[in-house]
Amino acid sequence: MFTGIDEVDWASLRHAYGSAEDVPGLLRGLASRDPADRETALDGMYGALHHQGDVYDSTLACVPFLLALVASGEIADRAGIVELLVSIGAEDTGREDGVESGLGARVRVGVRAGAEVFVRLTGDADPSVRRAAPEALVRFLDEPARVLGLLRERCVLERDDRVVHALTESLGLFVRRHPGHAAGALELLTAQSAAPYDPGLRLAALGQLAHCAVVESAARALGTFGDAAAAEVIPVLRDLLGTEYAAVAAEALWSVEGNASAVLPVLIAELADGRPRRRTAAGALARLGPEAGPALPGLRRLVRAEDLWERVSAACAVWRIAGEGELAAPVLRTAWMENPSTRRTVTACLAALGPAGAPLHDLLRTELAARRRHLASPSGGYGGRDVLDDERLVRACGEVLEGG
C-alpha cells in the first residue's frame, strides 16, 4: 500500500497549513487498526489536503496511496476514503465559467487512472464500500457503456437497501454525465419508479428522473412507458413544487402534462430576487414560448441582473417568448464576446429562434472562420473535454446557419 511513500519529498510539497511532511503519518493512520486513529487521519486529510474543497500538490501525490488503500481488503472504513477520492477528483461544478486550476485537472486525471479499483469495489464484501463505489465509477471510468452495464448488474444483484439507493442516485448522475448513453439508465430509473419496488426507492428514482439536466430526457422516457408511468411521476413533481427544486419540477411537470397555467405561477415566483434557481426558471419559461407571456416583466428585470448566466437565460427567454430581439440581442452578443463558455447556450437559443435569430448570425460565421480554439479560456488554457466541446460548438453553429 505504501510502496514508494518514503521516496516522495513531502517536505517540499504543501497543503492548507504549510509543509506536507505530516502527510505520510495521515496516510498510515488511515490503515490503522484503531478506529479513532482512522477517524483522526481522515479528518486530517480533509482539513489539510482538501481544505474547503481545494486541492494541493500534496493532494495529487496522495492519490496513488489512497487508491491502494481502498483496493486493500484488509483496511477498515474504506468507504470514507472512496468518498474522499470522489470529492478531490470531482469537477468543480460550482464554476459556471468552466475554468479550473491545472492542478485540479491533474488530480482528476490521477483518480481516473485508478478507476478500475472502483469497478472491483462495486462488488466488495463491505456494504458501505459498495454504497460509495457507484458514484466513483460513474465519475471516473471513461467507458459509459461498461459503466451502465455494471450499474445494471449491481441493481439486479444488490440486496442492501442503502446500496440500492446509491445505485439509483448514480444512475441519475450517469444520465447527466453521458446524455448520449442515457436511454438505458432512464429505463432502469423508470422501472424502479413503479411497483413492485418499495415506496422509498420509487420516490428516489422519480426524484432522479425529475432532477436538473435529466428533466427533458426523463419526460421523453416516461412518454414511452405510457400513461401509467406519467400517473406515477406527476404527484411527485407536484410535491417538489414547494421545494428548492421548484423550477426543475415545474419544467418537468409541463413536459409531462403540457399545462402551462399549472406551472407559470411557480416559475414566475422563482424569478424573484434572491431565489437560487432564477436561471433554471428562465430556461423553463423560454421552452413554454408565448404561453409564458405573464412572466415577461420578471424576465425583463432579470435581463439586467448582475449574474452573467442569469442575463443570458433571461435574454433567450424574452426573445423566444415575445420576439424582443432588440432587448435580447445586445445582451447575448456581449456575453458571447466576453465569456466563450456562454457560446453553446447562445447557439442553442439561436437554433430555437430559427430565422428570427439572424441579427446574431454574424457571430456564428466568425466562430466558424476562426482558426484558434473556440472555447479556450482568456488565459489560453483548456481542459481535457474542450476538444469535444469545441466540435459540438462548431457543429451547432453550422446547423443554425444552414437552417436560418
Q: Helix-strand pattern, N to C?
A: EEHHHHHHHHHHHHHHHHHHHHHH
Instruction: Please count the beta strands (DSSP E, at least 2 residues each).
Output: 2
Helix-strand makeup class = mainly alpha
Counting H and I runs of at least 4 residues, what is the number of helices?
A: 22
Large-scale geometry:
globular
Mean pLDDT: 85
Annotation keywords:
single chain; 404 residues; mainly alpha; two-stranded antiparallel sheet; 22 helices; 2 strands
What does this molecule look like?
The structure is a single chain. Among the domains are: 259-338, no CATH class; 341-404, no CATH class. It has helices at residues 23-30, 35-49, 57-71, 78-89, 102-113, 116-121, 127-140, 144-157, 161-177, 182-192, 199-210, 215-224, 226-240, 246-257, 260-270, 278-288, 296-302, 308-322, 325-338, 343-353, 361-369, 386-403; strands at residues 14-15, 18-19. 67% of the residues lie in helices and 1% in strands. It is mainly α. It is built from 22 helices and 2 strands. It has a two-stranded antiparallel ribbon. The model is unreliable at 93-100, 214-226 and 377-386 (pLDDT under 50). Strand 1 (14-15) and strand 2 form a beta hairpin. The termini are far apart.
